[in-house]
Write a structure and sequence with these properties.
By secondary structure, the protein is mainly α.
């Protein structure tokens, strides 16, 4: 699934990827829903859509073009490097048969669907229920669910059901990556849509976030424990095999759903507890993170191409790739992006000549 094939393999990294993958994209969508509602509440529907077109849709289009060209160049460099400095006569089958995909920017593409979906649902609910009783009911359900000692199971129930309804579920990777088709697959769209909607509703009851900052140890214990059960069932090595036994699928789906919700709540709780106070460093990294997300993949792949032939320990390669990539991206952001039209497009900031002051319409 990954074009750069390194001779250095590690079960430690495989297990780490599995555990992080349980919650990394789900927490992004929950937070995206939270901040989307905050923006919608402040700006209204029309301004909200204009903002999202500038900050999400436009970076998706321009970022995809730039990343595709860079990644194509890096892959050709890799193939030549592995073939003694010359291009092979024919491309490997996985490249020759590869179709269109959104690369790592599929997150932005799915967000566009979710923005349209939540506004459509909101319009329908308003047309049916003029008094707002439906929204009030959902608010009460979320309040009671998040306050329940069984919150992980209750909040995870829709995710568990979605997994059970998925045929040929490649269970090791949890939620399938919806980046290979123009029409998103139903399973990831439902799960990410549910988490996005949950985040949207949580902005209506911000006091719940304070609850997430408590009992962190218990949430982390439950989340990691459930994730380890899933890891023991699926195996430590990455696999695209589908779960076949219905009973095994049920048990795995229940533990995966509990692990996902528990780790999401723990992750948000950690932010509430330790990042509540204003910090110039955290703010700067937060501003830079969108640029780093869009631009990181070609640099990561180029670094891997450089390091593949070297007989270094996998941990040294891992640290080197990450440190160099982050350094390059942060330097580029500071001197080329932050005060440029790209920074304006990504975060809506208008800076002085020093690039250090401004206001945000993000």
């Amino acid at each position: 699934m990954w074009p750069m094939r390194d001779s250095e393999k590690s079960l430690v990294m495989s297990v780490t990827i599995f555990l992080i993958h349980v919650f990394r994209m789900p927490v992004f969508f929950l937070l995206a829903g939270f901040f989307a509602h905050m923006m919608f509440r402040r700006q209204g529907a029309r301004q909200f859509l204009r903002n999202r077109a500038k900050r999400i849709l436009l970076p998706l289009v321009l970022g995809w073009i730039a990343c595709f060209l860079c990644i194509a160049g890096v892959v050709l460099w890799y193939l030549a490097r592995m073939n003694g400095g010359q291009m092979p006569q024919s491309l490997p089958p996985e490249f020759a048969t590869a179709g269109f995909n959104f690369l790592h920017l599929w997150f932005l593409y799915i967000l566009c669907w979710l923005y349209a979906g939540v506004l459509l649902v909101r319009r329908i609910v308003q047309a049916i229920d003029h008094q707002g009783a439906t929204v009030d009911l959902v608010d009460r359900i979320i309040l009671r669910t998040c306050s329940s000692p069984f919150r992980s199971l209750l909040l995870g129930a829709p995710i568990i059901l979605a997994f059970l309804l998925q045929s040929d579920w490649e269970w090791w990777f949890g939620i399938p990556t919806p980046g290979y088709t123009v029409i998103p697959p139903v399973l990831p769209l439902l799960i990410y849509g549910y988490l996005f909607g949950l985040g949207w509703m949580l902005d209506r009851q911000r006091a719940l976030l304070e609850n997430f900052g408590g009992s962190l140890s218990m949430r982390l214990l439950i989340g990691l424990g459930a994730a380890c059960v899933c890891l023991a069932m699926a195996g430590p090595e990455a696999s695209v095999a589908a779960v076949e036994d219905a009973q095994v699928k049920l048990i795995y789906a229940v533990f995966y759903g509990i692990a996902m919700i528990s780790l999401i709540l723990a992750f948000v709780g950690l932010g509430v507890r330790f990042l509540a106070n204003a910090s110039p460093v955290v703010r700067y990294l937060s501003d830079a993170s969108y640029w780093m997300y869009i631009a990181h993949l070609p640099i990561v792949m180029a670094m891997q191409t450089l390091l593949v032939p070297l007989e270094w320990h996998w941990a040294i390669k891992f640290v080197t790739v990450n440190v160099v990539t982050c350094a390059v991206l942060l330097l580029a952001y500071r001197y080329c992006v932050r005060s440029s039209w790209i920074g304006l497009m990504l975060s809506g900031k208008k800076y002085s000549k020093m690039g250090m002051r401004g206001h945000s319409s993000q």
